[in-house]
Amino acid sequence: MELSDMAQEDRRLVEALKEAIVEIDSEKAKEVAQKIVEKKIDPKLAIKYSIAEAAEIIGNRFDCGEVFLPHLVMVGDIMDEVGTILEKNIPSEQLQRKKVIVIATVQGDMHSVGKNLVAVMLRAGGFEVHDMGVDVPSASVIQKAKEIKADMIALSSLLTTTMPYQKEVIDDLLSMGLREKFKVMIGGGPVTRQYAESIRADGYGKDAIEAVVEAKKLLA
Amino acid sequence: MRLPLWEILKRAKEGPMLEEKQFDLSLFKKTQELQKKYGIKYDPDKPIDVDGHLSDRLYQAGLELFLDLGTYCTTTRRVIRVTEEELKHEMKLCPEVVTMGQGEDRVEMRHRDIEGAQEPIVIAGIQTAPFSDEEMMFKISKICAMDRCVDGLWGGILLKIDGQYDVVAGAPSEIFQYRKTVEVLRKAINAAGRPGMIIINNAPTSIATIAMFDEGVGLRRSDYMEVTGMSELKVAYDDFNRTAFALAHGIPIHGSHSSIIGGFSATPEGASIVSVAGSLQLIAVQKAESFRCGAVDSRIKSRVTRAQLWVAGTAIQGLNRNTRLIVDGNIGDHPAAGPGTKQYFYEAAAGFIVSTVMGGHSTEGTRKFVVGNVCNYGTPLESRWMGEVCKGAVGMSRDEADRIVKYLLGKYEDKLKDAPEGETFEKLYDQQNLEPLPHYRKIYEEVKEELRGLGLRFRDY
After folding, report:
1. CATH number at residue B344
2. Which domains does chain A have, with CATH numbers?
3. Are B258 and B294 in contact (CB under 8 A)?
4. Overall number of domains in chain B
């Protein structure tokens, strides 16, 4: 079913939810989501035409410089809250598991801004993102990825002297026989696609927008 | 007596505990509120605040932000707050002059006035760029040191030990190899006949930075210790380690903090407020005696976008109009374009003109914004350009600077996202006589003449 096939009132609610998310109105978004649940509107459709479309709109606005990092964080929070409400009506066996990404700035590197941007954009792009913060050793990243059964590990480095830690994670995965379990995507100021290929990473994101496209491609 | 570091650390352990995300979002909300309260408005048609009124309001907004929000310690996850009285006391006790360098190469860094006639201190060099080997780093650094328009040199990185072992931050190799870089710098300034010249380097970790200090062959008490405030309005124990060492050894402390346009301060207006607040943090929390007040743009890999020029320039002006602190601008340090291109010189010039005219020194070197692990991606001509422009802009009015900066923006602004990569030192300098190749010298001279025609007063060195 498409949005146009829905009853007018249902369609209006789904569009109101999308608008509330885009306008970063948490209370209204939760209120509308609750109404959608009460009216028993297909939650999968509601998610597709509210959360997913709102994510795309916000992503484009970020790309154009109309919204910024804090907006993305707040939108991400609203999406999580609304998602939890809407999923109440989806039988657990039908709940589609989101792709899970562990993201971190590598050991020795305290830079957080680029990593934060990628994390919130991935979250807005529909992934479940576990942000481990900055200065995270390889062993901790791998442990976390194993623990939460991640699909991908995303690693940021802003210093030439911390780039080897991106390689270390890949080498450690190989040594532990876990390389095939996780896709690895890397990025950061000095990092290039050539470098990503040279250390046998699966993907590379030049910036937050490209990282989301790359992640979607790798985890399709 | 200044508020002791130990009192700050006590507050870092006992201050209110907060999730980092809550602090970040509070910063966003507070800057939004303050930009309205103080009428802070960025007008892209006015990249320079020519009368200073906006800068005064910005200073008040930054002061309020710092006092209200405080500094977030990422190690303890607590907020460090300083009272208004304490901050005023700190500013009053900041030195009026910081002496650096030795012998004939000694310089005094003082508060500079807006449009002031005081010459800025310029510490140039190919900052934090990787060099292929010690010999290449020595050659490039020596030529940089010979330029009399610069007062000091920033160092870079030697990426491999013995040509084969990676240098990795936080590993023993970082300590060993960063120490090697300053040994090379010392040899270079000696060979250039300027043994007392200031040299600076800052490794990713404090332990490697501290290990660079050695009166005999490394950094000296007459150089400075850079302490960085994490963006935005944050600090970690690793940053405090640098302060503690510098205080114990009597080394001048130079702070550096950048707001992030598109980060949690969001807009250029928000970033400008955070730039002022971050500078006050460096003084009150990290015990800096001078500081760099900067901004970066999260989406464009250049330090001289129109918005950045406005953010950093207005913040520096606000600090210089309202305090007697020693402010560093260094705005033109990282162009998007690479060495060997006219665009590099245009971008750098725009930033360094704003720095000097707004009353800033420029002490944090220069290089292309993104160099990755490409070695020798910088030449002494870019270092010289930094010195020539910073000093050639002395005495220039804000109106003049506004006119020139708009001209320069017109030259590069639409090319920032797809800037020319440029070439490495090997492609731009004759490797026998170590002089710029004719085509590169020609580019330099052409841009210099163009800027002279626009009003820069270049001097002979």
Report:
1. 3.20.20.460
2. 3-91 (1.10.1240.10), 100-218 (3.40.50.280)
3. yes
4. 1
- Which residues of chain B have a pLDDT value below 70? none
Could you tell me which chain A residue has the CA closest to the CA of B231? A113
Distance from CA of A70 to the nearest CA of B (A): 5
Q: At what angle do helices B342-357 and B380-392 cross, to 10 degrees?
A: 40
Domain contains B459: no
Nearest to B204 among A69, A108, A189 (CB): A108
Question: From B368, which residue of chain A is nearest by alpha-carbon distance?
Answer: A190
Q: In chain A, which residues have their Cβ closer than 8 Å to the Cβ of B21?
A: 73
B167 φψ region: left (φ > 0), alpha (ψ -120 to 50), beta (else):
beta
Mutate to test the interface with B, among A117, A130, A160 (most CBs of B within 10 A): A160
CB of A189 less than 8 A from some CB of B = yes
Average pLDDT over residues A22-47: 90
**Residue predicted with more confidence, B389 or A89:** B389
Give B-chain residues touching A68 at CB under 8 angstroms.
262-264, 266-267
* ipTM confidence score: 0.82
pTM confidence score: 0.92
- Candidates A69, A113, A161; nearest CB to B204: A161
Contact B263 A189 (CB under 8 A): no
pLDDT of A110 reads: 85
Give B12-67 as a 3 state SS string.
HHHCCECCHHHHHHHHHHHHHHHHHHCCCCCCCCCCCCCCCHHHHHHHHHHHHHHH
Q: Is residue B448 assigned to a domain?
A: yes
Q: Does B189 fall in a domain?
A: yes
- Residue B29: inside a domain: no
